[in-house]
Design a protein that fits this description.
The chain has 164 residues and is of the alpha+beta class. It has a single domain, classed as Nuclear Transport Factor 2, Chain: A, CATH 3.10.450. The protein is 37% helix and 33% strand. It has five helices and six strands; from the N terminus they run αααββαββββα. α3 packs across α4. It is globular, with a radius of gyration of 15 Å.
Length: 164
């Protein structure tokens, strides 16, 4: 709960400070970084993701998926993130991400995303589609993501799949 409040506070603070931009503003640095992130997760296979990796992430990236493990990163470094991504692509072959609003200040920021996928046997196996919105809180080195913490509501997905 404290983490959710802290994330929301960061987002609201950045918006109030006037750094909010539309994600479709191609000139915006944060939107550009967010779009590359979306392209990475829409890659569909490990090889395409590997080809895109260096445009999106630093080699020593720390990637945390809060709903799956709030205490530990799911990946630290290039190899672990590509392994995690390959597992994701295998589990959700029909998924897609879309970029929402974003904001950056200095070397930190966030962007909102929407994930739509079809539940496959590697997850619950219902064959049902679901959509969930989330936010990536990012730390940057130049124009690449060095740290990413993805926040989204797993219960929203499970409700859409009839699991809750």
């Amino acid at each position: 709960m404290k983490r959710t409040i802290a994330v929301m506070s960061l987002c609201v603070t950045m918006l109030v400070m006037g750094v909010y931009v539309r994600a479709d503003d191609a000139q915006n640095r944060c939107a550009h970084i967010g779009q590359k992130w979306v392209e990475f997760w829409n890659a569909k296979d490990g090889q395409t993701a590997a080809d895109l990796f260096s445009d999106v992430f630093t080699d020593d990236v720390v990637y945390t998926d809060i709903p799956t493990d709030p205490a530990h990163p799911v990946a630290e470094g290039r190899d672990q993130l590509l392994t995690f991504a390959s597992g994701f692509f295998a589990t959700f072959p029909t998924s897609s991400f879309a970029l929402g609003p974003s904001a950056c200040q200095g070397q930190q920021g966030f962007f909102e995303w929407t994930w739509t996928a079809v539940d496959q046997p590697g997850f619950s196996g219902t064959g049902t589609s679901f959509t969930v919105r989330g936010v990536a809180i990012i730390a940057l080195q130049g124009n690449r993501i060095a740290r990413d913490a993805d926040f989204w509501d797993l219960a929203t997905v499970l409700r859409q799949l009839g699991q809750l």
